[in-house]
Design brief:
Blueprint lengths: L1 H4 L3 E5 L4 H16 L3 E7 H7 L7 E6 L8 H24 L5 E7 L6 H6 L3 E6 L3 H8 L33 H4 L5 H13 L5 E4 L10 H11 L4 E3 L3 H7 L12 H9 L6 E5 L8 H14 L2 E5 L10 H10 E4 L4 H6 L3 E6 L3 H9 L4 E3 L6 H11 L3 E3 L10 H12 L2 H21 L4 H14 L3
Parallel strand pairs: 1-2, 1-4, 2-3, 4-5, 5-6, 6-7, 8-9, 8-11, 9-10, 11-12, 12-13
Helix pairs in contact: 2-10, 6-9, 12-13, 12-17, 17-18
């Protein structure tokens, strides 16, 4: 205890959305395992919904509140107002304790807290929980630099420094849909206005210096010419290897999934999941359901309770022959299981990174925000997956879904995709092992924090 008492107290502030909470909580566990005192600052809604035990070395400071607003955009705006109102008091409370806060680790999407943190005398580490390519893209849309911005009207194809040629379908949804997601758009672009003010800028990717895929190296290297960034990823794999990684906001079905997967042959199962926010139209759910049946492969499909009513009755009667449907799953366990042959995904960044570092090829069906850009890199740059093609009405047919799955699961291209995925898995593990690039950067951060005492 005396050794821990001498360490800097780090306050961790996650963005209260599933895909953003996971990596920053996992990074917190890494810090705590290295004898840093860590407190996660959140709100009662997240604290109660997480259903997790962060372990004895991590404290949770939860802010009480009334009913939360409906809708993601309203929720994020409300969260910002609440946190800006309560943050100073919480920091001051710790200031009167045995462990005053010296450093705050934030998700870069909530970079609006940086100025206030600095006013309170804190150092700030911003953790970027999205792909590096998006930082490059947002840099060119930076409203403070009109010479580098591209029009929201979507002049495509878009050619920008270090990035591959991006068609309209490869760009984040709110760039082309000019009036869509105003709060999300403000937060996303605000990262580039504000997160560069942080004292440390960290990316949840790993150092690409040993990778032969030159296009990916160009993206990272170009961004380093604009910001002083360091890589600390994949934090998901770091915790996964320690077997203390679960931070799902919904309690996963551990035993149900494991027992079912254990009974399947190696590489025979499609894992299907669209994260915690994506909501497919009823017609698209129908096409996906029957596309899975037509693929003639076993499938484990995560269908949230709010989406289950969109499943066709005819499909439900057939699904048990080849599939297992759950409302959530232990995704890292599932992706690491030997029976998994591919991941049919919306391509959220966490899911993308988890598949990449666990060596699982993907079938990409992106929906919004960064997902189209992630799918572009998966299919064309990293070459670890393929992307389904939508019809003129925007719906991906069951035939397209089935043929894409077969291309990955049984055809020759699938072998190449799997080989590429395994290469990334090896490189990711090297980065987080002792002496690796991410390992060194985390150690340097801890040393810098301790020097503040």
């Amino acid at each position: 205890m005396e050794e821990i008492n001498s360490k800097t107290h780090v306050l961790v502030l996650p963005c209260p959305v599933q895909g953003h909470i996971n990596p920053i909580v996992q990074f917190s566990k890494i810090l705590a395992s290295k004898e840093v005192k860590v407190t996660i600052l959140t709100i009662d809604f997240v604290c109660k919904a997480m259903l997790l035990d962060c372990g004895p070395l991590i404290n949770i400071e939860s802010i009480p509140h009334e009913a939360i607003p409906v809708g993601l955009e309203n929720f994020l705006e409300w969260f910002q107002t609440l946190m800006l109102e309560k943050f100073s008091g919480i920091v001051e409370k710790f200031g009167d304790s045995e462990y005053p806060v010296k450093v705050v680790v934030i998700d870069s999407i909530i970079s609006w807290i940086i100025d206030l943190a600095h006013e309170l005398g804190l150092k700030v580490a911003a953790l970027h929980t999205q792909p590096v390519a998006l930082s490059v893209l947002y840099y060119h849309i930076d409203q403070e630099d009109s010479t580098n911005k591209i029009p929201f009207e979507c002049s495509v194809p878009v050619s920008l420094s270090s990035l591959p040629l991006l068609e309209k379908e490869d760009l984040p949804s709110f760039i082309c849909e000019t009036h869509a997601y105003p709060i999300v758009k403000r937060l996303a672009f605000g990262q580039n206005f504000n997160f560069k003010k942080a004292d440390w800028l960290y990316m949840t990717v790993f150092d690409w210096s040993r990778i032969k895929f030159n296009k990916e190296k160009r993206v990272v290297n170009w961004l380093r010419t604009q910001y002083s960034i360091k890589t600390i990823g994949p934090v998901v794999l770091s915790i996964y290897l320690d077997k203390e990684y679960d931070s799902s906001l919904t309690k996963p079905h551990y035993e149900t999934c494991k027992k079912w997967l254990d009974s399947r042959e190696i590489g025979s199962v499609i894992y299907v999941s669209f994260g915690s926010l994506v909501s497919l139209r009823e017609k698209q759910m129908e096409e996906l359901a029957f596309g899975l049946i037509m693929s003639n492969s076993y499938f484990l499909w995560v269908v949230r309770d709010t989406e289950e009513n969109k499943l066709p009755n005819e499909f439900k009667s057939k699904a048990s022959e080849k599939g297992l449907i759950v409302d959530w799953s232990p995704q890292l366990d599932v992706l690491a299981h030997k029976s998994i042959g591919c991941f049919f995904s919306h391509c959220g960044w966490n899911s993308t990174l988890e598949a990449l570092i666990l060596g699982v090829p993907m079938v990409c069906m992106p929906q919004w925000v960064d997902q189209p850009t992630n799918a572009k890199f998966i299919s064309d740059i990293w070459r670890t997956g393929i992307r389904v093609k939508a019809g003129k009405d925007g719906v991906i047919t069951r035939e397209e879904i089935a043929s894409s799955i077969k291309e990955v699961m049984v055809e020759k291209k699938g072998v190449m995709l799997k080989e590429n995925a395994i290469k990334w898995k090896i490189l990711a593990k090297e980065a987080i092992d002792k002496g690796g690039s991410s390992y060194k950067n985390i150690e340097e951060f801890i040393e810098a924090c301790n020097a503040l005492n």
